[in-house]
Amino acid sequence: MKYLFLLLSSFSLAQTYKVLNEEKSDVSFRGLAVESATNFVVSGSKNTIGRTTDGGKTFKWINPTVVENRDFRDIEVLGKDTYLAIGIDAPAYIILTKDGGKTWNKVYENTQKGIFLDAIHYNPKTKQIIVLGDPIEAGKPFVLTSTSTDPTKWTIAKSLMNQGLRLKNPKEAFFASSGSNLYADDKQVLIVSGGAASNLYRYTPKGGQLYTLEKTASTNSGINGMAYDATNNVGYLVGGDYTKPNESKYNLYKFKINATTNKIEFIDSWKYPEGYKSGVTILSKDKVLVCGYSGVDYSSDGGHNWKIITKDSYNTCNASPDKKSVILVGNKGKIGKVTL
């Protein structure tokens, strides 16, 4: 087990980083859902799902037999022992367990050519489940909706918050790198794209909004991940070019929502995290952690300055409910933890 202690300043406590598990070295993990300080689930390639109930000391490895040879790009907790996982690509599946992974049911299947599910988001307040997929019909995101009341029934959405679904560039799509290019609460739905173009789409009951984001000319670049904290009204978008993990250009946007205009306002940063980033998690009004192929970076001043926690590569990061730690998952079976 590897440990790294960092002191960010004379006024801050040291962060502790450790690798929790590398048993599944042939698996790429991108799906992650944190249920509590001790319970979380991970999902990845080779039909692999893992669950821990002791904070990552041990894992129960699961290969759901209801589907075969899937890469589970994202997983979500609906309630105690109840998880949804999405598997790519054609045919695409959504599978459900209500007993902590002992048994699974296939609740959605799509064999259409071009189907590719990227992310799943659950809002416990509204009980709404949204799954985002790459466009099958040019210029329109593929969106599925359901509820935790009955997650066996799915609808192909034509709108979100009563706003029609569309894409500005017919060749833009979504990166399934961390399952975090989708966010929803009771007031809005946010979707962020990449590829040929990178745009932030905001759907509200009062109308739809579009924000164009700068990116490099490469179709491998754009925004990969997003987090928004409604309590503190702060959000972050992270990305870059995944084929150039050491380049930091256009890898971070910070934003808030103006209460008067009900529109997104972007906030400048003094510095940026190092390299390509695919995941982000917000810990407080000023504390934020990002991860990617280039490593894990942490800011305690609202994203203005950044410190490198580790150069280890990770795809996805999620904070525990108490915000005292962050779980990370990545390629080669790596699962890590940062204690704050």
TrEMBL record:
It comes from the Bacteria. InterPro entries: WD40/YVTN_repeat-like_dom_sf (IPR015943). This is Photosynthesis system II assembly factor Ycf48/Hcf136-like domain-containing protein. It comes from Faecalibacter macacae.
